[in-house]
Amino acid sequence: MGQISVSKLKATCLSVVEEVRKTRKSIVITKFGEPVAQIVPPPLADRPKHWLGSFAGTATIVGDIVGPVIEDSNWSALKD
Q1: The pLDDT of residue 75 is above 80
Q2: Low-confidence winner among 13-17, 39-43, 63-67, 70-74 (lowest mean pLDDT)
Q3: 13 has a pLDDT exceeding 90
Q4: Strand residue runs (E) in the chain
Q5: In a domain? residue 52
Q6: Does residue 29 fall inside a structural domain?
């Protein structure tokens, strides 16, 4: 766990927050050498182990997905 003074945090806030995000380590903010606050990384988000199959069960099939969209008589390739 690192420490940083309030005045230095004020000047480098964005880089300190990015460091906490990357390293996932807390940083204590001090004022006159006494701790006043702490920046901690958020908990990790739950992710599925594999992306394959992650949307299983989320869609429904409506109608015929195998048959042709239009009738055979309307196809220009079959009209010879």
Answers
A1: no
A2: 70-74
A3: yes
A4: 2-5, 27-31, 34-39
A5: no
A6: yes
Supply 73's token pair: 């008589």
CA distance 33 to 10: 16
What pTM was estimated for this model as a whole?
0.54
Range of the domain at 33: 1-42
Domain count of the chain?
1
> How far is the C-alpha of 17 from the C-alpha of 38, rounded, in Å?
11
- Vertex 58: Cα angle to 56 and 61 (nearest 5): 100
- CATH of residue 38's domain is 3.40.1620.10
Q: What is the SS3 assignment for 24?
A: coil
